[in-house]
Amino acid sequence: MKELRFALKKTVPILFTYLFIGISFGIMMYEAGYSWIWSFFSASFVYAGSLQIVMVSLLKAGADLLTCALTAFFINARHLFYGIAFIERFRTMGWRLPYMVFSLTDETYSILVSADFGEDLNKDRAAFLVALTDHIYWIIGCLIGSLAGRILPWDMAGIEFSAAAFFIVVVIEQWEKSASKIPACIGLIVSLLFCLIFGPDRFLIPSLASSILILMLFRDRIRSREGMTDEN
After folding, report:
1. Distance (Å, whole) CA 212 – CA 152
2. What is the domain range of residue 24?
3. Could you tell me the mean pLDDT of each successive run of 10 residues in the chain, 232 residues long?
4. Disulfide-capable partner of 207 in 49, 126, 174, 194 (CB 3.0 to 4.6 Å)?
5. Nearest to residue 125, comparing CAs of 88, 163, 99?
6. Pair 211, 190: CB distance under 8 Å
7. Running DSSP on this structure, what letter comes out for residue 149?
């Protein structure tokens, strides 16, 4: 199947990121006293990397449901902004819609935004397989960590940089493909500004919201720039 080969090729960078971070989560769950089945269900139905890591601490601390809900909202609120870009597209995907909404992680979003699906692929099927493949990587990583984490011989400190490296590559590809550089420049300037104002731990949500508002103001200029370049 062409769509499956496409999904596997595009998600190879995610494989290593999700496996190692998933293994870290599985190890934490094991050390917290939870069996592999809980790691499996968490990876299958929560599927929110950073939130799952925090979730272990919440479980150990016996946090109440409201605290867990608020923590989940603030950690994953950025996905609200990701989803805006795919509202219309996901609506046309029929039975795949609920899963596409559920599985829109940072990495899957980056692939769906940057990938060139081509004319010979069923785009809906390919996008679904990208999301599903990433999810399977994550489940496998969590299970490995939970089942065999105590005997793993290496230190995985710093492995989270692999995700940052992946996003850097995506940004570079988007810069080269896009006719208008305005969105990238706006995102960079706004992010740096809010990082200075709120600090590295609190800048993400306000910078995303501000970037969307500014891009809406520059929408016509960006579209005209894309049109001019295509004609040339």
Report:
1. 43
2. 2-177
3. 90 87 84 88 88 82 81 75 81 92 88 85 93 95 82 56 60 69 82 89 77 76 55 43
4. 194
5. 99
6. yes
7. G
